[in-house]
Amino acid sequence: MKIGIIVAMSKEYELLQGIEFPQHEIKIVRSGIGKVNAAISAIELINDFNPDLVINSGVAGGIDSCLSVADLVIGTQTCYHDFYAGEVSDHLKELGFEKFISGDARVIDVVKTLAECRNDIKLGLGCTGDQFITTKEELFKIKEKFPEALFVDMESNAIAHVCAKRNKPFVSLRIISDTPWVEYHAEQYANFWNDAPGKNFELLKNILQAL
């Protein structure tokens, strides 16, 4: 299987260098932060590599009380939390893309199996927007629109959008870096980078081994 992996940041990219699986051909791309960077990288990856599966790996903010820092989340669906084009009755027909884009069923099934014996893996809705969510007020606005949302990031649904247009399976795999409802939110994010990204890398390896 040809698998394209998109990460946003240099730290994530460096961690994945040298990853090899004999049964897969893997290409890793660093997109940079934000929806436009992510979409450009997804288009280039698909055009140049033609992957069978695209995985977006990285960090996300937790926006549900079931989550703690360093928990792992998988987007069963993704959407934009900062997109509004009026009251749209048929998102796909009127705007050309689904409001909620589903993650790849094969990867989700693998993760569900792994989650059966772990309490630090959650599956659910991820919301994407060009904002780093730092306050309770911002979090509550998103939760009001999407009560079921687990996490927020700045790339996932932009990549999912491109993959849906190009008929490429996609899934978002994230590790929670911070939870904006706590008082020491800034310290959470600073301390997170010490060793937590390696945990996300281990889950990614488990997924690749199972595919």
Summarize the structure in words.
With 211 residues, the protein is an alpha/beta fold. The protein has a single domain, classed as 3-Layer(aba) Sandwich (Rossmann fold). Helix content is 38%, strand content 26%. The protein is built from eight helices and eight strands; from the N terminus they run E-H-E-H-E-E-H-E-H-E-H-E-H-E-H-H. It has helices spanning 10-16, 35-49, 91-95, 105-115, 136-145, 156-165, 185-192, 196-210; strands at residues 2-7, 25-30, 53-62, 72-80, 101-102, 121-128, 149-153, 170-178. The protein has a five-stranded mixed β-barrel with strand order 3-7-6-4-8, surrounded by four helices. Helix 2 (35-49) runs parallel beside helix 6 (156-165). The longest helix is centred in the N-terminal third of the chain and has 15 residues, at 35-49. The termini are close together.
